Amino acid sequence: MMLFIASVAGFSFASIALATPFHLNTRQNASSPCALVSASAAAQTAAAVPTVPAQLAYDCITSVPFNKSAALSLLDAIVPYFRWQSTTAFLKDPPEEYIEKIQDAVDVWGGLESIKSKVEGSSYANEFEFGWALYRLLQSTHDGHFVFIPDVIGTVFNWARPIPLVSVSEDGKALPKPYVYPDVLASSLGNASFTPSAISTINGQNAKEYLENWAQYGSLQDRDALYNNVFYELAVVSLGPSGAGMGSFTGGGRGRWVSTNRQFLCQLDLILTIPTKVYPGPTTELGFENGTTTTYNNYAKVLVSFAGVTDGESLYKKCTPAPGYPPPIFKESHNLIGGYYLEGDYSDVAVLSVPSFVSLDSAEIPFQQVSEQFLAAARAAGKKKLIVDVSANGGGTILQGYDLYKQLFPALIGYAAGDRFRAFESTNIIGKKFSNVAEGLPRVLETSNDTLLELEYDVVSSVFNYQTDMTTDGKNFPDWPAKFGPVHQHGDNYTNLFRWNLSDILTPLNSGGIYVHGYSNITNSTQPFPAKDVVVVTDGYCASTCTIFSELMRQRAGVKYISLGGRSKPGITQAVGGVKGTNNFPWDYIQYLAQYTVTNISTAAEGAELNATELGQYWSNVPFDRMAIGSAINVNFRDGIRDGDDTNTPLQFVYEPADCRILYTKEMTVDVTAIWKAVADSAWGATNRCVAGDLGGYGKRELRRGFREKRWEDRALERRMEVWRRGLSVKDYPLDVFTDPRQTLNGNGIMYP
Ligand SMILES: *[C@@H]1O[C@H](CO)[C@@H](O)[C@H](O)[C@H]1NC(C)=O
Ligand SMILES: *[C@@H]1O[C@H](CO)[C@@H](O)[C@H](O)[C@H]1NC(C)=O
Ligand SMILES: *[C@@H]1O[C@H](CO)[C@@H](O)[C@H](O)[C@H]1NC(C)=O
Ligand SMILES: *[C@@H]1O[C@H](CO)[C@@H](O)[C@H](O)[C@H]1NC(C)=O
Ligand SMILES: *[C@@H]1O[C@H](CO)[C@@H](O)[C@H](O)[C@H]1NC(C)=O
Ligand SMILES: *[C@@H]1O[C@H](CO)[C@@H](O)[C@H](O)[C@H]1NC(C)=O
Ligand SMILES: *[C@@H]1O[C@H](CO)[C@@H](O)[C@H](O)[C@H]1NC(C)=O
Ligand SMILES: *[C@@H]1O[C@H](CO)[C@@H](O)[C@H](O)[C@H]1NC(C)=O
Ligand SMILES: *[C@@H]1O[C@H](CO)[C@@H](O)[C@H](O)[C@H]1NC(C)=O
Ligand SMILES: *[C@@H]1O[C@H](CO)[C@@H](O)[C@H](O)[C@H]1NC(C)=O
Ligand SMILES: *[C@@H]1O[C@H](CO)[C@@H](O)[C@H](O)[C@H]1NC(C)=O
What we know:
four-stranded antiparallel beta sheet, binds 2-acetamido-2-deoxy-beta-D-glucopyranose
């Protein structure tokens, strides 16, 4: 992926035609929309990323003529990759409950066919219209692992609105209403003389309906999680570079961004987002309950000129502030994981905040260390209760999810859902070849033979070697056909179910360097808290590896899950609202697998034979040339199937209500400890904040007040928290963001929305 990003470093607006088969007409006619964009961008020398009015950007991008031959070759070139998407049969014909409570059915192959016939009939008015149709086809699956963003949609502009919103309940019981976030900030932290008024209409429509519709442009599947993702949220903001920005209403949703505020210059993100790809119209008119109406001008960020920011990575490494988060006890430097204590009446509560399982800059080892150190410290400090907050967690390194679960519950089984992938010609040929090559090699991690070490990485530790993984009942597969199957189901073919071999000596090759607690050389862990003293809270934005972790926590440990926020409707919501596929594959990895099989591990004669099969279809670079710069390009490769589910339904299509739903309040949008206290109260305290569901099985905290003698550490923490809270200031909360594409997230179970 870096290859494609690196090749565009010197991009300037006028030379946008570099890799794309289209040109933005900036030169011939000085009053054409693109020429006006170009002139305006050129004049903004002081800005890291220039902006232009949304309407002008829209007029420019929709003036790009449709290129039929280029469209046809793109549609042909993406077909081999679509075959790797594990869920197309279920998307076309999902379970009834999925349609009723989650999303509509989507016929991916049928949709591709109808785009193709429109292309053949030259029925697209311009390139944008074509790109949008293709983009929407994938986005409408609401599978955060199934992503292709065409260049015309994501390379040139990101659209944005100038203000983020929040959705909060007045008292934690009344249904939430949308507010302008700077109003809430000012009234909470500034000396504003006004009481913020809720938004009742947007562009003349009922505000909640408008926002629910807008939310549907997101990549999560759960509608309440999608709704939360419209709004500003501290957990998301804490992630800076790898988070989802300021909420999809303002357009920072899972975007690539750098704040204009110098203090936040270190926050840049890498992946293009669905909501910033949606043209919001020229203006946004908000009608408030107090009768006032305000109209905001929408704008577009001009992505192809990045004068000013030359080295995203070095900026990114400097700092990642987490506004609204208290001083940590332990924290990974990018805020991927952090441990916190609460003070006063809550001094028996420890909080492990895990907004990501993602691997950035080889963060796996520090990530594991933070959880180890914090859990040990919390026990040593006499903490009795643990809140795990996985809000904003779009996943990351799969085995990191297993590891955290095993740190919490070392004695429990390290498996909750079996994996499988589509069984078809490409996966079969690659599997046969990899298995065959691996049979001639030892399974070793330590070797001074570099050739062998590379083969351990590329082949021996691969899922395409039948010796990797085990059957769901913990046995080795005897050969490749035993793993491959195929199993016919739901009109499609899948491999047999398999599970990770967590004892595998090669685990570090699949985990970014760690072994999983409870296996190999880490067998001395003790369970830090009883299950009844652990709860997990989420904003629904729990995807990919986070859903693997959650399946283990809920199905094996019986830990209760609390969902935050949601649509302005009564009733329970889902806690886990993001993609539940258990592994994404980038398309360039798929291309590499095919080419590597043909050229690197086969003799010339064998290679020629293999290249005459489906493997011969992975040589075109058209999909990579036509993807938006810096964007993700993925399929969902593995399904997760719950242990014991005889219907073999991928978890992606299973509805799972939370145990308790808590609404956001204004305070929770500026001080994250307000969330954790509401959770502690509902789980173990006197005040139940659940508006739906309950945590009935949980015992009360033994002593609500003064659960023990206050020690000097407790008093010191109280003082620290007081100082921190007093110091909270409106200017600490970034509100305006810009983009930079030069960062990539790693992780084999991560949602790229
Ligand atoms: C220049 O472009 C504008 C907008 O596309 C168009 O209305 C106008 O006719 C063009 N002028 C010439 C001289 O081509
Ligand atoms: C259309 O795309 C093809 C590549 O498929 C390119 O060779 C051609 O120049 C493009 N046509 C126009 C008018 O830009
Ligand atoms: C409070 O209001 C005064 C006068 O309007 C202003 O100068 C000051 O910056 C404000 N303080 C904060 C924290 O907003
Ligand atoms: C009405 O509420 C909005 C949003 O909080 C605020 O900006 C505006 O000043 C208020 N208008 C009046 C007249 O109070
Ligand atoms: C290194 O490993 C490769 C692959 O197993 C093998 O072919 C080669 O002989 C080994 N080299 C040495 C010096 O042992
Ligand atoms: C499933 O496999 C069978 C042969 O085993 C094949 O006939 C059928 O076309 C396959 N189905 C799909 C959807 O690939
Ligand atoms: C798992 O990995 C270990 C260590 O590499 C190996 O000994 C074992 O045979 C593998 N399979 C199973 C089913 O444990
Ligand atoms: C476990 O093994 C890994 C890989 O060899 C090593 O880096 C790590 O230090 C070992 N841990 C312990 C506790 O021995
Ligand atoms: C487990 O063993 C390792 C290595 O001997 C040690 O560093 C670590 O502190 C031990 N952990 C516990 C919880 O005892
Ligand atoms: C595979 O072979 C190609 C062509 O010989 C070579 O350029 C490439 O480096 C090889 N890749 C690996 C991973 O060995
Ligand atoms: C494999 O076949 C494709 C066309 O199907 C061709 O472009 C490519 O060069 C071939 N690769 C090799 C190594 O023969």
